[in-house]
Amino acid sequence: MAQLIPVDTFDLIIFGGTGDLAMRKLLPALYHRDRDGQVTADSRIIAASRGAMARDDYLSAVEEALRSNLRDGEFDDSHWQSFSQRIHYVQADAFEHGEWHELVEALSGYEEHVRVAYCATAPSLFGAIAGGLKTNGLITDNSRIVLEKPLGRDYESACEINNAVGECFSENQVYRIDHYLGKETVQNLLALRFANSLFEPLWRRGHIDHVQITVAEDLGVGGRVEFYDRVGALRDMVQNHILQLVCLFAMEPPSSLHHDAVRDEKIKVLRALRPLSADDVRASSVRGQYTAGAISGSTVPGYIDERGGDSSTTETFVALKLEIENWRWSNVPFYLRTGKRLTGKHSEIVVQFQDVPHSIFPEQKYNVSPNLLRIRLQPDEGVQLSVMAKEPGPGGFDLRPVSLDLSFAETFGVGYPDAYERLLMEVLRGNPALFMRRDEVEAAWSWIDGIIEGWETSNQKVESYVAGSWGPPASSLLLDRDDRAWYSDDRI
Ligand code: BG6
Asked: Which CATH superfamily is domain 184-237+275-418+462-491 in?
C-alpha cells in the first residue's frame, strides 16, 4: 500500500463550486483524502460561485452530492461533521472583480497557507478568474491555479487563455489538468514500459505491427447536452485524454520522473504527429453520432432526442488513424477511437506485434495469430499478453492463442482511488509532473485543428450508429482498408 503523507495546510478555492465537477468529483475526492488523514486540521475548502448562497444551504447541497456520489457505505455522519467544518462558500462573479469582498475577507490572514484556485468552470472564464485573483492581491508566492480541460476550443483560443493566465501566474504555478494522467492504470503504463526491460527492445517499428487505443463509454451526454454540443468527441476526449495516452505509450524513455523530463519527451511525440491534410482527414477519420438503441437490455434515446429534437452535426464518436514521424514509429499506424453510448465502458490499448517471419507449422499456417499485448485501462484493469501455444494431445500439432493475464484487482487486492484524489494532492504538494505544460496543450491543439479544418472544408459527414454498437460501420472500414480489424471484447 502506498504511503499517505499529509499535504501542507491549504486553502483550496473552487471556482464553479456549485457545478457538476465540484459536486461529482472534487468534493468526494477531498472527502476521501480527508478521511484517510492526508488533510491537515486547518486546511479549508472555499467554494466560490456567482450567486449568493447561505453557507448552510451550500453544505446541504454538498452533503447530498456526497451521499449520492460516494460508494455505498462510504458516507459517514461523524466524518461529515468534521469535513463540513472545512467548507465555506463565497459569492464571486468571475468578471466582477470589484465585488470579491467575501473571498478577500476569507483569505485575509491566511497568506502562509498553500493557496490553490481551482477553475472548475468553462474555459472562457479562466483568464478572468486569474485576473480577479491578481487585481484583488490574492496571489501569494505559495499560490497555484488549476485549469480544467478542455483548455479552449482550438490552438488560438488555447493560446489566448494561456496568455491571460500567464499575465497573472508564472508557468510553474499553472496546473493544467487531464484526469487520465491521474488514473492508476495510466501511470502503470510508465511502470510497464520503464520498470521492465522486457518490452523496450520490442517497443518500436520492426516488432510492432500497429497500436489500437479504444476509450468507449456506454453513457450518453446526460445533463451536459449543451456543453457537449459545442465540444464533441474530438475536443472532449482526443485532444487531451487520448493524445496523452499516445504520448505515454510512444515517448522515448525520460531520464528521470522529473516533471520536465517526462514532459520534454511527451512534447516530442506531439510534434512528430504527421499533420493531416484535408484529403488525409477524409481518409483517416470517421465522425459518428448515436441514434436510439439498447445498452445492457435497456433502450436509450438517440443524441438528437436528448437535444429535444434539435438537429446537430456534433460528433459523439470519432475514429482516427495517426502516424508518428520518427525513427521509432515510422510506418506503425495508431488507430484511435472513442465514443459515447457504445457497447460498454471499456478502455484499452492493444499492441499487435508482427507476424512470425516464417512459419515452421505449414499445416497451421492460418492458425498462427500475432502476439497481442492488451493494456486494460478500465474496467478490470490489467495487462494481458496473448501467445501461441500447442494444444495438448498426442496427434497432430494444433496451435491456439492463450493468455497470460494479470488482473490488478486480483494481484493488489485494493480498489483504485479516483484520479482526482491523486491529482488534487499533487497540486497541493506542488508537483506538476501529472499536469500538462503550456507547450503540450498548444501542440495537441495545433494537430487537432488540422482535423477540424479538414472536417469543415470537406463537410465530412457525421455517420449514424446505433447506441449499444461499436460505432458507425465506417470505423471498421478504416481498419479493413489496411487489412486489420478492431480488437473488441469478443476477439481473443
Ligand atoms: C471527461 C469528458 O473528460 O472524461 C467526459 O469530458 C467523459 O465526456 C469523461 O465522460 C470520461 O472519463 P472516465 O474517467 O470516466 O473515463
From this structure: Dihydrodipicolinate Reductase; domain 2 (3.30.360.10)
